[in-house]
Amino acid sequence: MSTPLEKPQIIAHIQKSLNYTVFDSKWVPCSAKFVCMGNYPRGTGVLQIYEISHGELQLVKEIEKPKPIKCGTFGATSLQQRHLATGDFDGNLHIWNLEVPDEPVYSVKAHKEIVNCIDGVGGVGIGDGAPEIVTGSRDGTVKVWDSRQKDTPVANMEPVEGDTKRDCWTVAFGHAFNDQDRCVCAGYDNGDIKLFDLRNMALRWETNIRNGVCCVEFDRKDINMNKLVATSLEGKFHVFDMRTQHPTKGFASVSEKAHKSTVWQVRHLPQNRDIFMTTGGAGNLHLWKYEYPGQRSKKDSEEVDMGVAGTVNLLQNVTLSTQPIASLDWSPDKQGLCVCTAFDQSIRVLIVTKLNRV
Amino acid sequence: MNGVRFLTNSRLKLLRSEHICKWSETDKNKDPVPRDYKDWDKFDIEKECAKVDGVVTNNSAPTIINRGLPKVLRKLDTSALTEQERMVLANREKDKGNEAFKTSDFEEAVAYYTRSLSVLPTVAAYNNRAQAEIKLQNWHRALSDCQKVLELEPGNAKGLLRRATVQKHLGNLQMATDDVNAVLHIEPHNEIAKKLLNELNKKMTKRSPEKPAKGKTILIEEIEDEEEEASDGAVESSSQQRVGGESCAAAAAGEERADMGNAQKKPHGRGDGGGARGKGGSADKYTVTPPGQARDKERPAGRGLANGNSTAHQGESTSREGGEQSKVNLDAPAGNLPPQLARLKNEGNHLFKNGQFGDAIGKYSLAIDGYTESGIDSPEDLCILYSNRAACYLKDGNSADCITDCTKSLELQPFSLKPLLRRAMAYDSLERYRKAYVDYKTVLQIDISTQAAHDSVNRITRVLIEQDGPGWRENLPDIPLVPLSAQQHRREEPPSAEEAQARAERAVQDAARKAEARFTVLKSDGNECVKKGRYEDAVGKYNECVKLRSNECTVFTNRALCYVKLERFAEAKQDCDLALALEPENKKAFYRRALANKGLKDYLACSTDLQEVLRLDPSVQEAERELQEVTELLRQSLAAASPGKPRRSVPITEVDDTEESASKGEQDSTTGQNHMDQSKPSAITQPANAYEFGQALSAARSHDDTEACAKLLHLVAPETLPSYISNHLDGHTIAFIMQALDGHLLEKAPSLVYQHLNHLHTAERFSVVLMLLDKDERRQMTQLFEHLSAVESEDFSKNDVQNLANKYI
């Protein structure tokens, strides 16, 4: 890394302004297309499919839906089907066949309030076991869905009646390395992070990072859980080493002050789990690399194993917009290609170079 | 249609029945609110402490470590997938493997590579898995992966390189070398391959002399080894391969030498004894199991006999013992034991091998009883019997009896290895560590290569230090001194004359290193003194330097500077001369000699020196200035024939010890003779050291005074000439010496000339200098030898001269 050019560069490849507020974007697996989800000014929802061809974005399809769409995922669908699961402002979970988008393949009134976040596992070759979708909502519940089961979730995580319900801002699957084991991590507006073990249906671990948790993501969904990144409202993010769980101290973590504003999202590179991008409230992107410590666990004073956190190195940063970048999605197929959406009503296709050399 | 596929695919996966997970904020251990001041009055320490304790005990759940791979499927069901899906999946699993590999989770990496391969076999995944297996030291699996790679893609460099690594660790150095050479053929600049090749070559060369040494290592085998059949050979060798591989893996840190050792022992070490020791027992070689008989090693002949007889007794024993034991010859004679006792012993051995230790004890006891009754005198055999019974006791966990038997055995045969080792183990298991320590130490005295003893000594040392603190050694019983006779035949390498020589050499080198260090210190001290203006001290330091090493030019130039500063010009000049003798290119020396000459009012010499400096480096302004001044002085002195004006002091400040940094000038080697020195050394005395000799010689040379040189040579003993000349020999010196010998010494003392010549050619750098001689000098030399051969003398013949001449010309 002697010269600046040796570092990965973040290049804004294509930028396109939209006439609606875009919340989320996702690559369609094994294609050069991606889907944007958002909210028309008139209060309806929109799905747009774009294709990159000859360095331009071409709108392939535009679908209008009655409710604004907040989030979506391809995580629980097979590669052949590539059905998109979305959550909307009204608390509905829909699964769409994008070829025939008039009626959803699956539909359920999942939550009483807006579905803030969605994640899927068990599809597109990621994770063994059943294809499942998890949704988190402002109503304080986190629910796991199986598209083979109508109307009711296969798992429901909520506080006991009478307790204050916190707004769930983010959910993520992880630990899905075989048919049985699976974990869901959820982050709440009060800074709580809860890790649910779906196999034992128990709250396995919880912590509080003092500020609202904007995004959590495991570095890989389909391995023995390794790392978890949680970003927070006030500009910090935390990386937890999930390999060693101490009975009292939990997981070791390292935190880094990344942006001067909210860290909206974190996304790990699909081709290298130790590299991830965080998106900031001031329109900037930071590319990070996690370095493991020499020993990932040590004995504490009572001879109990405890984890050791590594360090994070900033590889590159770039400012793209004046508005928050609300979502980012790496292409699962082409290393370094990603799409991000910002609240300046634009989508950007980015290329990050030299990722294979870091 | 898609819908159908969805169902078929998902039918495999179980649907989660509905679960609800609830939590409550209230039962969490919230941070306590700070106490009110008033509360502290009512504070009950006991109760609070109990509360804290309670919290601690509640949290004593074990750490959950998400390591290892308990339930990762090694094979993925891909029946319903298209080619493209498989490719995506295989790639993804491979990526996961790579990531795990990067974090050194090699087992996990292997699992993911295996998954990837189960979806779609690719060269990359095989290659990567091979690498991960290498890291895990699963050599054989790594080997098969490498083979697959090479089947799929012959000439894959990575595959070849990895196979080479594996072969290296398996001890197949030749095959490894072939593979590396193949890699280098494909990629001639592959650094890793080059390194590996170097290592291999080193190992190969090391290995051949190592073979006999290895054979000497004592094999601590189970007692079963006596009954083994040569016919087992083939089967055994394959099982040994496996065992060897495993023990490699078990040698945790993968200590390479140990691995190699194990691997190497397979092919040889077993070849001797006509397959009598065909049975491995190699698994036990380094493990802490009761070892076999110490005496086995010492009587290979006896065992060969036993083996030879075994075939003869074969039929008999087969009929008696039945098919199962057909291979065991129970009547093989054992040492001097009468047949019935030998049989008992062999039965005992056989039972021991089968793990029936109690029965074996019975047999051995009978044999021992019988031995005392029979009244034969063969302590070796009794010793073995006791030792074997001790092994059974040890296996049975009856350490006390084991100790008694070992002690008896040792009374009969002091310092035999196996009983000692067994007793040490027994003591060890009884936690009588001090005695165990002593026994292990004794074992190590007998055979330093007993790995089990080494390990145990280390472990026990730790235990004892923990028990007794730093003074643990004081509580130990005495460690008996093992007589040399018991040691020598077990030593891997008896200390040889070579070793002693090597040691001496090392000592010399050490001394040289120390002198070097001291020299550097002194020199820098001297330089420091100069900088501070304490020239007297500096001269002292430099004098010491010269004593340590008389061939360092900078010391002389620096000392010269000091002398100049101290206005001791004659000495300064001498030093400069010496420096120039050492390094005829030295610009500083010339400059300082000029200053010294100026101080001595020898303006002519001074100006010559300065001109020399300027000729070589015209940019030296000080020299130019000096020259002008001196020319002026010279003119005055010549004109008025009177002493010039009072000396002017010249600021000289540079004290660099590296000659390059000085910006003075250079000169050439021939100028040495051109200088007119005014202080002619009148009387030549016998030089006491190289320094004095060098001074005298260069003085003589600077005047072209061959007579002085002849005198000098006359005074010097011919044997010491090379050491006086040291490494200062150059072509001119040789020619000068030749001249002196030819012109002055040959008539007076031809035998001395011969002696000198006979020794001169042993001087350092002689051959190099010889090559660089010019025509004139060669002619002189030939002349000298012609003259010498013309002289008749009793001390040498014409032949001798001819031989000597061959060395020179």
Automatic annotation (TrEMBL), chain A:
Alphabetic keyword roster: Apoptosis, Cytoplasm, Repeat, WD repeat
Biological process (GO), any one: apoptotic process
Gene Ontology terms: cellular component: dynein axonemal particle
Primary localisation category: other
PROSITE patterns referenced in this protein's UniProt entry, alphabetically: WD_REPEATS_2 (PS50082)
Pfam families to which the protein is assigned, alphabetical: WD40
Subcellular location: Dynein axonemal particle
Function: Key assembly factor specifically required for the stability of axonemal dynein heavy chains in cytoplasm.
PANTHER family: MRNA EXPORT FACTOR AND BUB3
Protein name as annotated: Dynein axonemal assembly factor 10
Primary gene name: dnaaf10
Automatic annotation (TrEMBL), chain B:
TPR repeat start and end residues: 123-156
GO CC field: cytosol
Pfam families: RPAP3_C (PF13877), TPR_16 (PF13432), TPR_8 (PF13181)
Biased composition regions of type Low complexity, renumbered to the chain: 232-253
SMART domains found in the cross-reference section: TPR
Compositional bias annotation for Acidic residues: 222-231
Biased composition (Polar residues): 307-317, 668-682
Annotated RNA-polymerase II-associated protein 3-like C-terminal domain residues: 686-778
InterPro entries membership: CiliaryAsmbly_MitoImport (IPR051982), RPAP3-like_C (IPR025986), TPR-like_helical_dom_sf (IPR011990), TPR_rpt (IPR019734)
Keywords: Cytoplasm, Repeat, TPR repeat
Record localization: Cytoplasm
Positions with biased composition (Gly residues): 272-281
Record region (Disordered): 222-335, 638-682
Name of the protein described by the UniProt record: Sperm-associated antigen 1
Annotated organism of origin: Clupea harengus
Record gene name: spag1b
